[in-house]
Amino acid sequence: MKKIILYILFIISCAKLFAQQTITEQQVIDTILNNNYLLSNAMLKIDAQRALQKTSWNISDPEIFVEQNPFESLTLSVEQTFDFPSQYIKQGQLNREKTALSEKEYAVTKSELLKNIRLLYLQAQYASAKLNYLQLQDSVFNQIKDASAKSFESGNTNYLEKIFAETKYGEMHQQFINEQAELVKLKKQISILTAIQYDFAVTELAKLNVKNDSIMILQNPSYLYAEQNVKVTQKQYEAVKAQVMPDILLGYTAPLKEDAVYTPAYKAGISIPLWVNAYSGNNAAAKAEIAIAENNLRIQERNLIQQKTDALTAYYGNEQTVRYYEKEGLPNATEITKTAMRLKESGEIDFMNYLRTLNDAFEIQLNYIEALRNYNSSVIEIDYLNGN
User: What is the pTM (predicted TM-score) of this model?
Assistant: First the structure.
């Protein structure tokens, strides 16, 4: 039994000696954010909306005429049509709100991306921690399997105990192989997203600190986006209403010949919005868009309230589970292992019960890792809902 313990310590020391280069969660986040096409597209949308703000005062081109008739000399006429000033003002306000909406969309994209990156990194941490425990478990049961085979050859154990040890080791070894493949897959995903070409290790799985265990859904990017969309539809409605105002027409006509009797003339006029059906239809449609946006805001708020309830329930439940394992579960697992070894050496426990007991102790440790993963996942969800 002492050989088994020394073997485990040797594995741990070798693992530290040949440790890979470690990349932190923040390094992964920074690298992905700097090279993400979704985030880049969201920023381009902001740039596009800012550029469109310059089109708020979109004045039509002037019209220039040269005219000759039998009663007058050759004349040059210039006419310019303007929308009513309130139309330009309302369009400018609408474009600014659309720019703000694009900025809110960028925040939503970034927030969701951060959440997904953190969950991916957490899953890699969990797989790495689980693999370490499974490696220890695999080594221990391999040693027990070999010891059981030697004991069977010397007649100290029966065939059932030998085959049971081999079966248990086979199960543990298969779990170890599967977890190796899972960790390779997760690290490959991180490599693709970060363009990291070398093999790396993730940081050790540790309990995250929750910044705030209360959730302010009004600060969530998705809510802010829906709220901003209401403002956009309201400004859209105001811009549509402004279109009913008359256009303004200014003109100037002057003779091209210096000796012409005809003197320069000026004109000014307005257009009369007689065809009210089109305007009333646009107004009704704009009002409907406001109602739709307000309904979407209420839907988003209710969804976030439900997510808040689920996130806090998961957080408090996972926190209690982690606390149990830290205060009772892990110390009990250590005590179970020590007691099982002592009873096995004194002959007070049979071989198969000894293996089952060791397996139970390892299972407690694996359950703690899973509980820690679930707790950290709930912390990430709280941060996401708070817009952190």
Answer: 0.80
